[in-house]
Amino acid sequence: MSECSYIQVSRPVALPDPSASCEAPHLDAARTAARLRALLPAATVEVLAETFRVLGDPTRVRILDAIADGELCVCDIASLVGMSESAVSHQLRLLRTMRLVRPRRAGRQVFYSVDDHHILELLRLAGTHVQEKPQMPEPAR
Amino acid sequence: MSECSYIQVSRPVALPDPSASCEAPHLDAARTAARLRALLPAATVEVLAETFRVLGDPTRVRILDAIADGELCVCDIASLVGMSESAVSHQLRLLRTMRLVRPRRAGRQVFYSVDDHHILELLRLAGTHVQEKPQMPEPAR
Fold first, then answer.
1. Count of C-beta atoms within a 10 Å radius of residue A104
2. Which positions in chain A touch B82 (Cβ < 8 Å)?
3. For burial by CB atoms within 10 Å, which of A16, B75, B116, B119 has the most?
4. B30 at interface of A, judged by CB pairs closer than 8 A
5. A1 in a domain, yes or no?
């Protein structure tokens, strides 16, 4: 038993060599430096990811879809998406924090619209992407 | 005590009236029906939200940003984003499942690129949105 342990410890172990894990021709120093310069700043990456995270919820997508054709009050949004007004209000507050919806106050009334054309275009593009593509991954070619 | 309970039960309770919670002029039946017809199908909403959820992670945003200017092997992506190749591979598998990246096999080498122009445009639009806007919510007007 002890001999077996000794053999196990002393036997050369085939550790993977990280430098050998990728055989592709690599970027040279100049192109690596150019790519590094072009990367988004860390703070932008964080806000971008947080924006996508807030969009990554079916209820919030439905609310944005409901107001994509023009501003609506909370009642009408709740009616269109089949949710309570308090649940819609909660989601609208979150969407507003990330500047994905914009409130317009008219006296005691508040109407909500999609914040700007970027967000409308973003929803349209993502919708086109998911509707054009089959949902199962294809094998690597 | 029992009298008190009796009084509490018999006293008219001021329940909120949902119809009174929103004083805005509401959509009429025809416009409500038109908006309902224009809503995205439930299955599309789910995939859209899942796509945004996968994008809602700083590491995955950084990987997509790294390959936004053209395909790269895992080594180069790992080098650009400062992560291990195994961590990058794990994220690439997830991104590929949601068809956000596309692998191209050349012999034993695999290069990854952003899946299509929709995703590139989506990243560009979201980046423009978050860079144009102050990050604190503005008060309702």
1. 12
2. none
3. B119
4. no
5. no
